[in-house]
Specification:
Blueprint: E1 9-14, H1 23-36, E2 40-43, H2 61-76, E3 80-85, H3 96-111, E4 116-120, H4 130-136, H5 139-155, E5 161-165, H6 171-175, H7 183-190, E6 195-199, H8 211-221, E7 226-229, E8 259-262, H9 272-283, H10 290-301, H11 315-324, H12 333-347, H13 356-374, H14 380-408, H15 432-437, E9 440-442, E10 448-450
Parallel strand pairs: 1-2, 1-8, 2-3, 3-4, 4-5, 5-6, 6-7, 7-8
Antiparallel strand pairs: 9-10
Helix pairs in contact: 1-2, 5-7, 7-8, 9-10, 11-12, 12-13, 13-14
Amino acid sequence: MDNAGHPFLKGVIEGFYGRPWSQQQRLELLGWMQALELNTYLYCPKDDLKHRALWRDCYTTDELQGLRELIEACRDRGIEFLYGIAPGLTIRYSVDGEMELLRARFRQLVEAGCRSFAILFDDIPDEMAEVDRAAFGSLAKAQCETANTIFNEQLAKRDGRLIFCPTPYCQRMADDQHGGADYLGEVGRHLANGIDIFWTGPEIISREITVESLVALQNAVRRKPVLWDNLHANDYDMTRLFLGPYSGRPLGLREQVAGFMINPNCEFEANFVALKTLASYLGATGSWSSRDACGEALAAWLPRFSTVGEDSVTLDDLTLLCDAFYLPHENGELAEQLYDDVRWIVTQSPGDWGERQDRLRKRIRQVVGLARKLTEVHRRELFYAFNRQVWELREELELIEQFMEWKRAGGDTATKPFHSGNYLPGTCRGGLVRRLQQLISFRADGSLVPADE
């Protein structure tokens, strides 16, 4: 099993779909990473046109200068800069001119000081032009030979690193034979020793990743993978944020990979907890609790929420914010409690509400207060990152509070439906997407059914 003696990767991927981070945000990220002893930054924002759509075009002088500054900033902080390119949507593997254009891009970045790269064949159709199939026989072989050529010509002699992202980059895709029936096996046989491979786990966004699953993967690809972890990615649902801790990865997983790289929230300011808990996980000895690590990260994050007024954001506020926007597959403890209280109050008579009603009212007031406090934080990017989600939560909770009062006053949906003048059809929960969501519902087992079933 060959990973060519390269350093263990610990870091961050700017690899999401959406508006890329600013140069100032990237430099701030590098400061966070240095303090957390994270050693790798991969630049591959999907909406840098020259990363993907215009991969054939070299950067202009001005564009390249920004990348030079970033490469130098990484070097100054002891962080490895990787540049990612994704030619897979349009490349013709058998056309010599295509390979020369790819070489030119790599040469340009090497001359700018970059020595490590990623070549990404993710999120593309598993189809080939007939001329390519005739030349290579399979998509996997075409991609491997492309990567091998670049690695052998431009990187191996410089001790540079290349990471290959396969077309089926999670187990579900591989099981569905995306890319071909034996795609991963072919990668294992044809990809040059010394080239690493990205993997996201059983799913694109994996709740858990087991040691056993990665041992099986290693047998196929003949090397330890670098984990491209989308646990905190939110580019597939921009209405959500993921502020919870790195979790669902046992400590033993660290022995089965060549590195951990997280591809986090599009909103830069939303990623403090993800980075800090990743660093905590990577440095842990003995037992490790993601919830404890989350609490430590929130305490360290709190000073960034200083406000212009005397009514500051508290650690309890920040814990509630984190729990309300926790992780893709779960809510945090306070959010679960809030949900259970609302469900009980909506379904039970007021006489059975007990202490739940007072606890819920307290949480509603806290959310209302937090929405106001966020408008007064000095760091405006924090406000812009969280305002929409917190405001929507506030609106829903205030609607629930109105429903509580209506129900306490004797309201009965069977005789007189509940109405609110502030929440009208179209202006509340409106728009085409919300209407479409109401037509098909998820069951607890993940099956989808028409909403009237």
